[in-house]
């Protein structure tokens, strides 16, 4: 602000220089004084005006200076903003590039996603096909299982038949002999009619025996749908034993029974349960074929809401490590052609179907004991056990 | 001649009723006894020498083959017939090797059975007769020898014969 300082030191210069004393007249002097006064006044006014202007100027200067300062501030700010902006632009640019990258990536992702989606649709389609296939297989499996049960039954039947053929041979043979005797008596002209009748009656008895065997086999082999009826365990066991007794007897196998006092009724199928018992009897029979002590002990007991049936034999038992496999289908320790390996697996299936369990214990050298647990029939169905 | 006696062994009681009756009707004068097990049969054999024994092959306890072995040791001359089920060919071979005279398959054909039994008994009787006759002959031969010896001694003792 050098101009402002100069304006304030000017008052000394505005004093007009004095006129020379030679010319001085009073008027002149006066005129001169007046002129001088006027000039002084004018110059004073001018000075004041000047001062005023100077003041204004000063003011303006100050404002200007302020404005300049403000401007400088603004400029600095602006500069800062510009730098910030530059940085931001740079950052923005980076972001833009990143975004581009991301967009590119996302495009790639989109493509991949699309591919995945397509793959997924494929998979879903496959899955649907597979589900259908699985369902079909399941159905197939179920029907195969049914067939297996029937096959197992027929296999059991086949084994039984060999034994039963011998059994059947006896009554047939006896019928032939009794009838032959009657024929002889008639031909010899026997007068004792009673003697002839006696032979015929004995023949009839043998016919009944044969019929019983046959009808039993026929019922057993029938592929009937398995219903669930109240079944008397004791009755079924008796049936199974009657079918097997001749074979067991001829092999010197003793059967001991401990059937208890109760009359346990289970919900099941008499034929299926009979098959279970026959399978277990056959198993015990074969296990003890070459064994000195031959006893099958069967017990039936009623525990809490379940019937417990045990089949214990005095055979060599199950070789260690095989207990877990003996219920597997087609697993057999018998020689080729001697067993199908289906008996125990079918037994297991039947018991499981009826909501029961079957297990085996075979302490070394102490035979094998099969334990079956079957839920008892609800009390309201206990009244009408059927065959 | 004493009446023929036959022992029938079977665990089927109905057969023990039917078969003896058939034999009585077909073979007049035959005495038929029965045993429902091999053990009973062996008991009976100690008291009596049967002309023939007929046994079933399948029996609980001692079976027909084992009984056959026992008969061969105790009564080697008694003809034994084995009753087998149809198709028990292995058992038939076993039985014949074990000394069975013949085998009869169930269902039993009565004509065949009676014929087989007759044949066995006749053979047995004939063998026995041959044996008896042979024994008789042997004893006669002994007798003759003794007579000859005696005669020779007597001859030697006769005066005038010793000096030549």
Topology (SSEs and partners):
The complex is a heterodimer of chains A (387) and B (164).
Chain A: H1 2-8, H2 26-187, H3 193-221, E1 229-232, H4 233-250, E2 254-258, E3 265-268, H5 270-287, E4 295-303, E5 306-313, H6 343-353, E6 357-361, E7 369-375
Parallel strand pairs in A: 2-4
Antiparallel strand pairs in A: 1-3, 4-5, 5-7, 6-7
Helix pairs in contact in A: 2-3, 2-4, 4-5, 5-6
Chain B: E1 5-9, H1 13-26, E2 31-35, H2 38-47, E3 52-56, H3 64-74, E4 80-84, H4 89-97, E5 102-105, H5 110-157
Parallel strand pairs in B: 1-2, 1-3, 3-4, 4-5
Helix pairs in contact in B: 2-3
Strand order of the largest sheet of chain B: 2-1-3-4-5
The ordered string of helix (H) and strand (E) elements of chain B is EHEHEHEHEH
Structural class of chain B: alpha/beta
Helix content of chain A: 55-70%
Q: Low-confidence stretches of chain B at least 5 residues in length (pLDDT < 50)?
A: none
Helix content of chain B: 55-70%
Strand fraction band of chain A? 5-15%
Given the structure, what is the number of helices of chain A?
6
Radius of gyration of chain B: 23 Å
Q: Could you tell me the mean pLDDT of chain B?
A: 89
The count of DSSP E runs of length 2 or more, i.e. the number of strands of chain A, is: 7
Question: What is the structural class of chain A?
Answer: alpha+beta
Distance linking N and C termini of chain B: 56 Å
Look at the structure and give the mean pLDDT of chain A: 81
Oligomerization: heterodimer
Q: Which tags fit this structure?
A:
heterodimer, A: 387 residues, alpha+beta, five-stranded mixed β-sheet, two-stranded antiparallel ribbon, rod-shaped, B: 164 residues, alpha/beta, 5 helices, 5 strands, 56% helix
How would you summarize this macromolecular structure in one to three sentences?
The complex is a heterodimer of chains A (387) and B (164). Chain A is α+β, with helices and mostly antiparallel strands.
